[in-house]
Specification:
10 strands; 3 helices; four-stranded antiparallel beta sheet; Immunoglobulin-like; disordered N terminus
Amino acid sequence: MNSVLLVVRDRVKLRLRTALAAATALFCACGAGAYSVPGPSNDARAGDVTNDSLALRASAATVNERFYDFKVEIQATNRLDRPLKLMVPGGCPVILQVLTAAPPAGRVVWDSQYTAPCALSLVQVTINPGETKTFARGVARADILGDSLPAARYFVRGLLAIQPAAITVNAGEIMISK
């Protein structure tokens, strides 16, 4: 019985060390520099985020897909001269937030990470130098409005859920009607 517990404990320690090493490598690969976010402008869609290794651009759109009415896409471009490896949740690499107005004035009135379940298994995504990968998240109108939110124009932002920390990108405005 004790030998089984020792084996399990050793495997847990190995997984923790592996996760810590991956998080450290990702932090180093993504650059330690601060992310630059443009200041307020007349264009609420201006939400590009860049750092030493990534350039991110998000967009929100009304779509007519089988299960989704709205979609947020985040395009991630590798700015390095070597491949960039990102760890993202396999089921939902993008977290979608709906705000009453553009940040910083708007408050979050709906957040997909608390209302729409996703598979949490991590997937490694490789982005080659100069390459752009698109990460997307769709959502149904009824999920956002529910019983409490009125039909209105809302501001949307996406969070690319890379590990160890998500990066927030403004995605623009959408009109949500019942």
